[in-house]
Amino acid sequence: MDPPETQELVGKSPTDSSKQALPISEQDQAHQTRARSSPLSIFMEPFQWLQMLSSQLNPTFIFGVLVVYGLSQGFSGSFFKVVTDFYWKDVQKVQPSAVQLYIGLYYIPWVMKPIWGLFTDVFPVRGYKRRPYFLVAGVLGGVSALMVASLGKVPIAVALSCLIGITAGIAIADVTIDACIAKNSIEIRALAPDMQSLCGFCSSLGALIGYSSSGFFVHHLGPQAGIIGSFGSPTSFIDSIRVRDL
């Protein structure tokens, strides 16, 4: 080997090879990994996920899931459970044994969910299968909540009927949005798990807020006025305008 070539090989330091540039694809992957691990990117991931769902599905459908599962079923449902216990005890002065019977009665609309679902599929109103039932759910729940909150102490039969109306409004809205979810899950199978995750997240978050705030409202407004917190079910009326009929 010639002396110049020997000097050139000896002159190279061992660290020179580590300083060589990585391939472009590896550099991109490393940059993306660092970007994903940043706090801002982690915070933005849920919003990007919602944006992805909105682009793949109808944005009004996502809005409907947020309202029905988050506000109506999650928040209003949990708020309703806490406030009605105090309402029966403090306003109606009912014994706990009777309250348990009433609780079973005003949850009958949830047992009837298959019937509500059958109505939405078999009995369309002016060609619409979903919107009219969102409207019925909102009006029924809203009128019932306002009656209990504003009429003072009413007979037990009237109060029980109003509470059944509130739960019926929540149940009808729930089964109607479930029908929309089922249809979208059949049409876009790849997003079916994402839709279920969105429903579970909205319901859990709404219930957490409802249980956390119900005690505050009962303490400051009283159990009867606190019934108005169940007024979240009339937001289904907004859904009837925003959600595309499926």
From TrEMBL:
<feature type="region of interest" description="Disordered">
    <location>
        <begin position="1"/>
        <end position="32"/>
    </location>
</feature>
<keyword id="KW-0813">Transport</keyword>
<keyword id="KW-1133">Transmembrane helix</keyword>
<dbReference type="InterPro" id="IPR039309">
    <property type="entry name" value="BT1"/>
</dbReference>
<keyword id="KW-0812">Transmembrane</keyword>
<feature type="transmembrane region" description="Helical">
    <location>
        <begin position="61"/>
        <end position="80"/>
    </location>
</feature>
<feature type="transmembrane region" description="Helical">
    <location>
        <begin position="198"/>
        <end position="218"/>
    </location>
</feature>
<keyword id="KW-0472">Membrane</keyword>
<protein>
    <recommendedName>
        <fullName>Folate-biopterin transporter 6</fullName>
    </recommendedName>
</protein>
<dbReference type="InterPro" id="IPR036259">
    <property type="entry name" value="MFS_trans_sf"/>
</dbReference>
<feature type="transmembrane region" description="Helical">
    <location>
        <begin position="132"/>
        <end position="150"/>
    </location>
</feature>
<dbReference type="Pfam" id="PF03092">
    <property type="entry name" value="BT1"/>
</dbReference>
<feature type="compositionally biased region" description="Polar residues">
    <location>
        <begin position="14"/>
        <end position="32"/>
    </location>
</feature>
<feature type="transmembrane region" description="Helical">
    <location>
        <begin position="100"/>
        <end position="120"/>
    </location>
</feature>
<feature type="transmembrane region" description="Helical">
    <location>
        <begin position="156"/>
        <end position="177"/>
    </location>
</feature>
<comment type="similarity">
    <text>Belongs to the major facilitator superfamily. Folate-biopterin transporter (TC 2.A.71) family.</text>
</comment>
